[in-house]
Specification:
The complex is a heterodimer of chains A (about 280) and B (about 80).
Chain A lengths: L8 E4 L1 H13 L3 E2 H4 L5 H6 L4 E4 L3 E2 L9 E2 L9 H12 L3 E6 L10 H14 L4 E5 L7 H9 L4 E3 L9 H4 L5 H14 L4 E8 L5 H14 L3 E6 L16 H14 L3 E4 L9 H5 L6
Parallel strand pairs in A: 3-6, 4-5, 6-7, 7-8, 8-9, 9-10, 10-11
Antiparallel strand pairs in A: 2-3
Chain B lengths: L1 E5 L9 E7 L6 E2 L4 E6 L4 E5 L4 E6 L6 E3 L3 E6 L2
Antiparallel strand pairs in B: 1-8, 2-4, 2-7, 3-6, 4-5, 6-8
The chains are: A alpha/beta (about 280), B mainly beta (about 80).
Chain lengths: ~280, ~80
């Protein structure tokens, strides 16, 4: 196993992990924290927060960085929105992040299920801010409209990497389509905060990173996240380099100068990591 | 009462992990919540907090060893 740089260190508390994992199992819910083998799971579960993953735990796409399983998908659970709303209540969350696997097999890509989930969370937990991290929904306006119509506070769609690396990293996705998702959301609902993010350490250049920032801003993106790509297993695409904390700081500074409402950039940043803070523009400490 | 300390299974796929370092030595007092040891997996190094308070009585593995998930790696005497 390759030795990790000193800054890739996280804490792990088994009791906290077991507590949140137990609640998820009881309510038959998935978290992307667990499915993606997120390095921040221990920290987030200790703070009793998690990012929910709806529409099952099997994805119809085969991104080469992602730990979520691909294959034969399961039927959509109609009780999932209500169960998720109950989990938000049980964890006493003030801000909830809901993502999903990509469901190209569903006519609407799962848009209606997203809307049902947003509505169920809001009904049981008035006052909780809701962030959805959506797949590209094949860039279909009417499907995006369904999610927008449920009025989440934040719509995030991750562009994941620079345009030049798409074929090797996200072979079934399209850089321009992902930018279109952000652009469409902002055009249709300027009051909804838009968000995207990339992983670095996949072989991208600084210029390519700044180009993603420029493209995202042009599309109307408010919040931008940058984190280190970490390989889930030897079967996944390799880490080309470990980007230093100083370089992440430089990305943050330049991103702020370019005009993002908020930018999170450090090795262990993930798109939903400290999402409440990002929504508040960094005012929560 | 003696409590066995196991190699935690950090993910469903994890079969083994490398013990990166012990943060306590045999004979040391350990408080619940103290970082007891560090383990290295494919993505990161995790600082594992102790679930028990007591004296670290025995250590069965050294830094650098690759250890199966759930294997007993140490004993804490909680008396």
């Amino acid at each position: 196993m390759e030795k990790k740089p000193a800054w890739l260190k996280v804490s792990y508390n088994k009791e906290a992990v077991d507590e949140v994992s137990g609640l998820m199992a009881k309510l038959k819910l998935n978290t992307v924290c667990k499915e993606a083998n997120c390095p921040s799971l221990g920290e987030c579960y200790k703070k009793r927060t998690a990012t929910f993953m709806i529409l099952g735990n099997i994805c119809t796409r085969h991104c080469r960085f992602c730990n979520v399983s691909s294959g034969v998908v399961e039927p959509v659970d109609p009780n999932e929105p209500q169960h998720l709303a109950e989990a938000v209540n049980a964890l006493d969350l003030k801000h909830v992040v809901i993502t999903s696997v990509t469901r190209d097999d569903l006519e609407d890509g799962g848009a209606k299920h997203f809307a049902n989930t947003i509505n169920a969370v809001r009904k049981l937990n008035p006052g909780v801010s809701i962030e959805v991290l959506i797949p590209d929904l094949r860039g279909v306006d009417k499907h995006l409209d369904i999610v927008i119509g449920a009025k989440p506070d934040v719509i995030n769609h991750n562009v994941e990497t620079v345009r030049e690396l798409y074929l090797g990293v996200r072979p079934e996705a399209d850089y321009d389509r992902s930018m279109y998702v952000i652009q469409y959301v902002k055009k249709r609902a300027p009051h909804i905060k838009t968000k995207t993010g990339i992983m670095v350490g996949l072989g991208e250049t600084d210029e390519q990173v700044y180009q993603v920032m420029d493209d995202s801003l042009k599309a109307g993106c408010d919040i931008f996240t940058i984190g280190q790509y970490l390989r889930p297993s030897a079967k996944h695409i390799s880490v080309k380099c470990y980007v230093t904390p100083e370089k992440f700081e430089e990305y943050k500074k330049i991103g702020e100068e370019k005009g993002f409402h908020y930018i999170a950039s450090s090795p262990l940043v993930r798109s939903s990591y400290r999402a409440e803070e990002a929504l508040a523009g960094g005012k929560i400490k | 009462m003696k409590k066995n300390i196991q190699m935690p299974k950090l993910s469903e796929q994890m079969e083994t992990a490398v013990l990166a370092a012990w943060n306590k030595e045999t004979g040391d007092m350990v408080k619940k919540g103290d970082v007891l040891f560090e383990i290295e997996t494919e993505k990161v190094v995790s600082e594992v907090e102790s679930m028990e308070s007591g004296v670290l009585e025995e250590i069965f593995f050294e830094a650098g060893d690759e250890i199966k998930a759930d294997e007993i790696i140490a004993v804490i005497n909680c008396d």
